[in-house]
Every structure is written in C-alpha cells, then in structure tokens.
Amino acid sequence: MLNWIEEFKPINDRMEQPPLRRVHVKKVSLEAPSSMTELARFVSAGSVLLADNMMNGLSAKDETARNLIMNDIAPHFIDVKLVYVEGEVEAVNMQYLKEESKKRFDSTSNGVIQVIHDLYRTRDMSVWKSEHRRELLRFAVKINELDTYDIPHTEDIKEFLKRGYFDLGEEVCLIPTGWTLDEELKESITLRFFATFTPCIALFVDSSNGQVVMLQLSR
Description:
By secondary structure, this protein is an alpha+beta fold. It contains six helices and nine strands, in the order E-E-H-E-H-E-E-H-H-E-H-E-H-E-E.
C-alpha cells in the first residue's frame, strides 16, 4: 500500500433526485481578448490538447467566480452560453476555442502549463469512457506527504476554485489522461500544485488496471 494515500468509502453512494427547476440558456458573443491569463489557459487546456469540441461547463453562482469567467475565460471561446436556473446565472458553458487563443495557449513554457501537460499526459481519451461497468476504488491523498509545489501568477486559479466551488461546498472533478496509481504519481506536479491550496484531494481508480479515472478537489 502506498503511504501517501488512504482508501475511503463514500458516506452515501446514492444520488438524490434534484427538484425540477426552471432553466433557460442565453447565448452571448464576446470580443477576443488580447492576452491569456493562467486561469484561461488552465480551463481551455482540454479544448487544445484533447478535443476542439470539448464542452467547458463552469459554476457561476458566485459573483467573483462569474466575473472571472466572463472577463478572463469566456472571451476565448466562440460558443458561450449562460445557464439560468430560476432566473439566476448558475453556470457558463463554453465551446470551440478561437484560433488566436489557441496560439496564445502555447506561447509559454512556464506557469500552469506545467500542470496542464502533467494532467493530460496523453491524448488518449479512452479513460473518459468504458465499455464495461467500472469498479472504482477511492483514495484520499495525504497532502502532508506531498512535496508541495507552488506556481507564480496562479492566484486567479486559486481564487476561482475557492470562490466558485470550495466555498459553496462543491467539488471540482478533473479527468486526467495517462495516470496510473503508483509510487511515482506522488511526484505529479499537478498533485503537488493543488496541494498548496486544496483542502481535500481524492483519486478515483479503476480496480482492474490501476488507471486513475478522476481527480476530485474539494474543501
């Protein structure tokens, strides 16, 4: 057993049926930005490295998080839709990165790009789906066992995840590619970076092959 994780069982595996609520969607158009922040680079990574039609849906319930989305992230996308629930904006869906933004994505080899290329180690998206029902093992990462690694100029990422998710009691779920649960994964720059500001980090692992199928961040 690896000493930097511990297996845990979910308290309640049953999903409660959410109440029916009035939802409508509004499409908006935004001018292309002149630069790309670290937050925008982080969010748009899947659209560049994995699939250009990837849907990026972000929680926008918090005003600060919503402003970060609309000012820093959404202008990079062609298709932007605001999701209203009972008359209030709850999410923003974005798809198809603009060509100029694709060029800006690769304009640096420093900053959060290090995390991005570690999170998505391959372009193989087979981990995103399975032909059979997976039996998942859940592991909590012992953050104090990691050699934490902070990255300059990533305050916007930390603020967005904190205000948009952690403070609201919501989880951030990421699907890494090319990850296998082994001792070397402890040195992942992704885990070491998130450990600098994320209270709880969990790994969901396919019991049949040790493949990490989800990385969950929460408070």
